Amino acid sequence: MSETTELLDLYERMAVIRRTEKAAYDLFLAGLVKGTTHLASGHEAVAVGASAALRPDDYVFATYRGHHHALARGATPEACLAELMQKATGLCKAKGGSMHLTYAAGNMLGSYAIVGAHLPMAVGAAWSARLRGTEQVALAFFGDGATNIGAFHEALNLAAVWKLPVIFVCENNLYMEYTPIGAVTAADHPAADRAPAYRMPAQVVDGNDVVLVREAVATAVDRARAGDGPTVIEAETYRHYGHSRTDPATYRPAEEVERWMKHDPIDVARARLEALGVAPDSITVVDDRATSTVAAAIAAAKAAPDADVAEAFTDVWADGGAQWRV
Amino acid sequence: MAGVTVPTDVITYRAAVAEGIAREMRRDASVVCLGEDIGAAGGVFKTTAGLFEEFGPTRIWDTPISEQAIVGAAMGAAMTGIRPVAEIMFSDFLACCWDYLANEIPKVRYMTGGQVTVPLVIRTANGGGLGFGAQHSQAVENWALTIPGLKIVAPSSPADVIGLMASAIRSDDPVVFFEHKGLFASKGPLPPADHVVELGRASVVREGDDVTLVALASTVHTALAAADELAASGISAEVIDLRCLIPMDLTTVLASVGKTSRLVTVEENPHQAGWGATVVSVVVDEGFELLDAPVRRVASANVPLPFADALEDQVIPTTDKVVAAVRSVVNY
Where does the Dehydrogenase E1 component domain lie (chain A) (predicted)? Predict the structure, then answer.
């Protein structure tokens, strides 16, 4: 695949995520998505760039802000939106919801809504790959807020001590929920600055440049597959929406928002495409296809049947059931 | 020719833990252990003694004191083709990684619509009787019972340790395996090589006609001692070893109450929200007509575990307390 073709593909993946997140936002306002959502608009380059550096059999663990990670690993917009809309065709049969999108067929092994909890899981998946003698790696996406919870530190230490093939990718969007991360963290770079304490290399990267993210993760993946252990990557990015559905994010300075909106990951990728000589019309074709893809996904999700109420009592146990007594 | 029989067919509860794990590790290469001091040290209770020597460092992994990393890594490994057996040294320390037992391990299968399976065992030393005080002596099996999605095992004998360990490790569901500290030195018959005890099958360890005592782990022995004492005064107690809290074998309990018409639970966990409350609620719901007397629960008092032996005896179930409870329902 040529550089141009590959970048166009990454661009399209980001465009689909952006439109899916916009659909989630609109469908919520229309009353068709319930509960809450933590949208990842603005974070697309981290998910798409990192995923581009992975093999299909590598493992990914994500957070409650994880729509983009599921999509980047191959979940369809239709299945994701259907899940948010409580449909039987949802990615998790409408039993998980926005915060738990999981696409095990793509080894995307879950979105977890307890901050930091999935980092030790990624360590365990990497340990498993070692035990089974595969060359798989495990990658955990997490927010800057997760760097102050114990599980983050336990995971980094164990991964380093056991020299496991793990890539810890922090999406530093500058805010842990509503609070500037710097106000509550004794480190300038909340993830990267902690890595040396665990004898682990770290790289801070522009998380809004899909090419730079892919390169940074690819380097870390190479280290991991070579048996040289884990890496921390801190990808600096920015949320286009608030923390969750109810948050208008008025605590963010206007000039900061403006600066980051001018550094939109999709615009950055477009500029790279244009610099490679791709005609604007060719990019428009991709944009239009992304729009059609998501429009069709919305229509299909709306038309899908509601969750099957019998599913409330399946999948507790491996036998498929929920029997607790004999 | 008469001769001394060397009791090679007897094993301690402590050694049965390692034996049970070793049998499964020999038959399934995907079984791997992790925990604090479980390797060359053989475990602080010596319940993993010999495993490191037989299976080596690629299957027996010493960890830092990082309970979240231990069970979190076990979960990630279980989701990806390994059958981890994780040790949490004292059950009190489960609180340090409770997120994984409450929010992650039991829920991930369900909330992903069945996309992932988590075949792991979390072993832990539970219960009092050794004078370790309030943070190393608790019986916390009822903590696990509050969480849908965990299977819960608590054996009372070496043979059951081995048979239930086989089922727990082979289970495709997460299992919390409570080993009782007060029973480690106890001895019993070494079961044959193929010994497997199905999860969710209670055992009637003593038959009787006048009262049903439902017990678990250490309290099976308390209940049996009480049954001996009651027999001397003509009261015939049936003792049921529940063996597992989930699946909970209420069929065996209800059948026994159908015969005896009286029920006493004997629990080491605190009375407040102890497992006996669940047993009793089902029996009074589905077996109300079977009962000829109020049910009684003998459980630990609702206080932290004290250190001194004399104080601990005040709090935990004792033979005397069980005997008194049985007399009260028999004389009702």
Answer: 12-308
pTM over 0.90? The answer is yes
Check whether B130 has a pLDDT greater than 90. Answer: no
Residue the block writes with tokens 């992975």 = A54
The answer to whether residue A269 is domain-embedded is yes
B115 to chain A, any CB pair closer than 8 A? The answer is yes
Size of interface A-B (CB pairs under 8 A): 170
- The kind and range of the H/E element at B280 are helix B275-286
**Under 8 Å between Cβ of A202 and A234:** yes
How far is CA A49 from each of CA A72, A207, A214, A216, A246, rounded to the nearest angstrom?
A: 9, 9, 4, 9, 29
pLDDT digit string (tens) for B148-199? 999 999 999 999 999 999 999 999 999 999 999 999 999 999 999 999 999 9
Structurally, chain A folds into a number of domains equal to 1
Q: Quote ipTM for the complex.
A: 0.97
Looking at the domain assignment, is residue A324 inside a domain?
A: no
A199 part of a folded domain: yes
Q: Which residues of A touch B74 (CB under 8 A)?
A: 124
B136 is catalytic: yes
Q: Does the residue A323 lie in any domain?
A: no
* Beta-sheet pairing, B83-90 with B121-126: parallel
Name all domains of chain B by residue range, CATH numbers in brackets. Answer: 10-189 (3.40.50.970), 203-330 (3.40.50.920)
Instruction: Provide the domain limits for residue A7.
Output: 3-313
* CA pair distance A115, A124, nearest whole angstrom: 17
